Amino acid sequence: MDKRSYVYILASTKNGTLYIGVTADLIRRVWQHREDAVEGFTQQYAIHTLVYFETFSDIREAIAREKTLKHWNRDWKLRLIEEHNPKWRDLYADLTGCPPARA
Length: 103
Prior knowledge:
GIY-YIG endonuclease; alpha+beta; three-stranded antiparallel beta sheet; 5 helices
């Protein structure tokens, strides 16, 4: 049985600091970032807004895509976000109905 996996991009603000990750539980993982439940880069730089994600049926494909995106230059990453989410809406809020991330 295939289980969904996700590659996601979080941002501190529009055109701000970006974080790329992979997970099997997008809502739980983004909640952890939003609540600073895990120490590290996203907590240090207040990266709480889900601005982009892709869905995969195979975790290996998701991991490969994450590695690819991490090697992209910043302009390519920004263009990807802008193409799919030009207003930089908080997609977590769209998925869950929760208020947008704090700034």
